[in-house]
Amino acid sequence: VPLLFSSPFLSRAHRLGPSDDELYQRTTVSIMQKETGSGLMIHSYSPQGFNIDGNRVFGPCALLPPAILQWNVGSYKDITEESISLFYMLEPRIEILVLGTGTRLERIDPSVLSLLRKKGIAVEVQDTPNACATFNFLTSERRVTAAGLIPPSVSTALEVKKE
Questions:
Q1: Which residues contact 83 (CB under 8 A, 6 or more apart)?
Q2: Which of 85, 120, 121, 147 has the highest local Cβ count within 10 Å?
């Protein structure tokens, strides 16, 4: 008999007894329990993209904490039932989706909004500067929030002019 098959570790069978069962019943698992101060924060935005917790993200992005994804939309017109599907396919389901439509607040196709409502997701549609602030606020309130953000076409950040 080869040495490999005579190993006591490979041939030993362990039957679970009642005491093992009690041990396993005491084990608890907490899923998606947020740590204090956790959550993505948007630090800045520009026509090129976003700074999210020190990560430079170019172009439109989808924030699905803890993930940051490139979002394949060119403008608010590309926010369709298909392009928002990634926001409602998640488990656990997000409570609020914040959509930043760029430099200005734009109207989203009503069918997109009604689809999200049917899926039980509240939607906030705002211009991107306000959407960033809303996302940060909701995250700080520990709400289960996601965001779809299109960079503003021109910088709307406050600029200090030197005299």
A1: 71, 72, 73, 148
A2: 147
d(CA 68, CA 63): 5
Query: What is the C-alpha separation between 102 and 155, in angstroms, rounded?
Result: 10
Q: Per-residue pLDDT tens for 57-115?
A: 999 999 998 899 999 999 999 999 999 999 998 778 899 999 999 999 999 999 999 99
State the pLDDT confidence band at 34, using cuts at 50, 70 and 90. Answer: very low
Dihedral (CA of 98, 82, 118, 63) sign: negative
pLDDT of residue 31: 42
Q: What is the mean pLDDT of the chain?
A: 81
CA separation, residue 97 to residues 26, 115, 116 (Å): 37, 12, 9
Say what the pTM is.
0.72
Distance CA 143, CA 95 (A): 7
Instruction: Output the six-digit token pair for 3.
Output: 């040495």
Whole-angstrom distance between the N-terminal and C-terminal Cα of the chain? 91
Residue 60: closest CA among 41, 47, 44: 47
